[in-house]
Amino acid sequence: MMEILRGSPALSAFRINKLLARFQAANLQVHNIYAEYVHFADLNAPLNDSEQAQLTRLLQYGPALSSHTPAGKLLLVTPRPGTISPWSSKATDIAHNCGLQQVDRLERGVAYYIEASTLTTEQWRQVAAELHDRMMETVFSSLTDAEKLFIHHQPAPVSSVDLLGEGRQALIDANLRLGLALAEDEIDYLQEAFTKLGRNPNDIELYMFAQANSEHCRHKIFNADWIIDGKPQPKSLFKMIKNTFETTPDYVLSAYKDNAAVMEGSAVGALLRRSQYRPLRFSSGARAHSDEGRNA
């Protein structure tokens, strides 16, 4: 079961005015915006009055909740279904540490109430696009739609790709259907390898192959040799990027090692406590120069 708890206002007046200005610049006749946090509790059992009050207190933060009833069209922005936000992980852990074991998960969204002139469907899509990051978030039209955040799907069974029966086209279709982004030579390699094995590949094997050989892992394009107008180029794309470090390595201790870099820092002062057995205390004025102040 899911419980909905209203939260504090999510946007300052400054942020609201910035949004309104962006809508006006896009010729979207939006007159007013109100936004507030909304919390969704996925419960495995009902809460009693004491537990309900405790959960309500946990989710009270930020400015006081507006007492008015929000007006306008609701656009609810939440994390994408199938993902768990960092806020959710922290909040759920806090709830469990407070003894609220009935809470399977807490999640948070932002409810935008948009007051606008008559907008077309496409214009509403533009409004929604301004309010969320589609890589990490989604937009619902009602609060109860947030139940989709807590749906638990059974793992799909392994499926086989009929390479032996359908030939290369089976891999081409699977490449598109599964979003593997396999290159032509990779499809050729898979066809040859599984034909020699005398069996069909399954979707798990294709996913694993695509991930292990992706540009993100292998940097095939970034490390490739380039020939432009018939002339081999001295540097790959990756070497061009690294050229800055190779030319001016000053103060760089490590670069391009496991997606990280370390630079040399400057000397800074540090405060060290005199005793690990007593609370640290600082003094000012005459007392600071006394034995009491020095021994603090």
TrEMBL record:
Protein known as: Phosphoribosylformylglycinamidine synthase
Organism this protein belongs to: Salmonella enterica I
Annotated ranges, domain Phosphoribosylformylglycinamidine synthase linker: 172-220
EC primary class: ligase
This protein's encoding gene: SBOV26371_1
Pfam families: FGAR-AT_linker, FGAR-AT_N
Catalytic activity, EC: 6.3.5.3
GO biological process: purine nucleotide biosynthetic process
Phosphoribosylformylglycinamidine synthase N-terminal domain mapped to chain residues: 36-150
Keyword set, alphabetical order: ATP-binding, Ligase, Nucleotide-binding, Purine biosynthesis
